[in-house]
Amino acid sequence: MKILLLSLVLLLPVSGADRGMAGELDEVARIASVIVDGDVCQRIVTPRALDYLFKNDPRDPWAAGDNYEVNDAAFIAVKKTLIRLSRLAPFPCDVNLWMPIAGHPDKVRVVIRNTNELSQFWPWAALYQDMIPQMKQVLDTGRRATVTEKPGWVSVLAPVYNSLGDVVALVEAVSQSRVDPHENVK
Questions:
Q1: pLDDT digits (tens, 9 = 90+) for 130-180
Q2: Domain assignment present for 155
Q3: Domain range spanning residue 114?
Q4: Count: domains in the chain
Q5: pLDDT single digits (tens) 42-52
Q6: Residue 38, C-beta contacts closer than 8 angstroms, at least 6 positions apart
Q7: Domain annotation covers residue 156
Q8: How far lies 137's CA from each of 106, 132, 169, 184, in Å?
Q9: Is 125 within the bounds of a domain?
Q10: CA–CA gap between residue 154 and residue 178 (Å, rounded)
């Protein structure tokens, strides 16, 4: 019985820390929803890069990645905003930009990853991937969602709006209970 009580007491601060982390990330994501400019986000990836995204050239399997290009001014403006947002948290976190892919409603791409290279969802080197249900929910409803599918990870997904009020992207405010600076850098 004493061991059970001791275990519960030792585990409570971890649970509280995760709740605190989720709350801090939710606040970062809420602020990001207001200040990240969806019109600028829509100009980041060039039409040429989008055209190559799903092309498969048997002679050049890396064509899509080699031809991934961005509009520098839009990319840098949004990246700097995301970095500033990540500094609102009292612990290491990243704020990443994800965008749906026109004509492929079940696909999403990470457009900007940030300083610590943290993401609960991005498989290394993927140009695009299947959209997880929580991302679809945020894009469809405009409501934030907290995701804790990977042990030790907390992500809060929040909508990004353009000037017409349409949800055109989402941000992932993300951190880990124990950050390993080498784990996420390949």
A1: 999 999 999 999 999 999 999 999 999 999 999 999 999 999 999 998 766
A2: yes
A3: 2-176
A4: 1
A5: 999 999 888 87
A6: 160, 161, 162, 163, 166, 167, 168, 169
A7: yes
A8: 12, 9, 12, 26
A9: yes
A10: 11
Q: How many residues does the chain have?
A: 186
129 beta partners: 108
Taking alpha carbons only, the member of 108, 113, 100 closest to residue 167 is 100
* pLDDT tens readout for residues 24-75: 999 999 999 999 999 999 999 999 888 878 887 788 877 766 778 899 999 9
Predicted TM-score of the model (pTM): 0.84
User: According to the model, what pLDDT value does residue 180 have?
Assistant: 63
Q: Is residue 185 part of a domain?
A: no
- Retrieve residue 45's tokens: 């990836």
What is the CATH classification number for the domain harbouring 167?
A: 3.30.450.20
Distances (CA, A) of 153 to 13, 22, 146: 16, 10, 10
Q: What is the rounded distance in angstroms from the CA atom of residue 182 to the CA atom of residue 72?
A: 28
Q: Which residue has the tokens 């060039």?
A: 46
In terms of C-beta distances under 8 Å and separation of at least 24 residues, what long-range contacts does 45-52 make, across chains too? Answer: 45/69, 45/70, 45/71, 45/99, 45/109, 45/111, 46/70, 46/71, 50/101, 50/102
